[in-house]
């Protein structure tokens, strides 16, 4: 059975969002939620409704040695908030070490100009990397 997924790269200021295709094979960057301007939980709920899924893949930031620090705690607190406010979620946690670095490299290689423009893109690309690694492991 095929399943569609939404992935989140949760940061203090921005949340990168990606989606899978209907078959759950290919990840695509979707959008960046600016937490200073938008109620993030509400926007995520809207995206889940638009994409007709309740399956979320969320990157948990870990240190290179695999331990979890304060940023991971913040992401887990956000997961609790999502679970409390959105009914019926199915959440998959993924180790997201180096995804932002990978996304940044990808954008540098594609010659994306301008720091501000790149910041608007890098988070959703990082979410797509998180989602694609999850989808690839499921095969």
Q: What characteristic shape results from the CA principal axes?
A: globular
Would you count the extended β strands for me? 5
Quickly count the helices: 4
In round numbers, the mean pLDDT is 86
How does the SSE layout of this entry go?
Elements: E1 6-10, E2 14-20, E3 27-34, H1 40-50, E4 55-60, H2 70-85, E5 90-95, H3 99-109, H4 115-138
Parallel strand pairs: 1-4, 4-5
Antiparallel strand pairs: 1-2, 2-3
Helix pairs in contact: 3-4
Give a brief rundown of this model.
This protein is α/β, with parallel strands linked by helices and 139 residues long. It has helices at residues 40-50, 70-85, 99-109, 115-138; strands spanning 6-10, 14-20, 27-34, 55-60, 90-95. The protein has 4 helices and 5 strands.
